[in-house]
Amino acid sequence: MTPFGEKVRGLRATRGVTLKEMAGDLQLSPAYLSSLEHGRRGRPSEALVVQVCEYFNLIWDDFEEVKRLAALSHPRAVVDTRGLSPAHTELANELAESVGDLTSESAAELLARLRAAKRGR
Question: What is the pLDDT of the chain when averaged over all its residues?
């Protein structure tokens, strides 16, 4: 599941909306919406993100959060380390090789450390 998919599923659950209902209301197929939630499709288009936010009446910070999560929801991420240090390239390759072996807790911990390192720039 992608971050965007997790958020949409949570919004649907909170508001008691089924996947089939939401897909119909947005004029999407349930299979497509399910594929977006589960990461079997690429990141959603900006237009679809806006449509989802409007569907749930999201404003300001909630809208920006859904936009941010959608941008981070490509299930096949590519990391370009050209021009960066050997350590950057090693980190990218090590993560690519081992991300599937991480527990959810370990992944969350690494993500928190990465975010903290970005803030400390």
Answer: 92
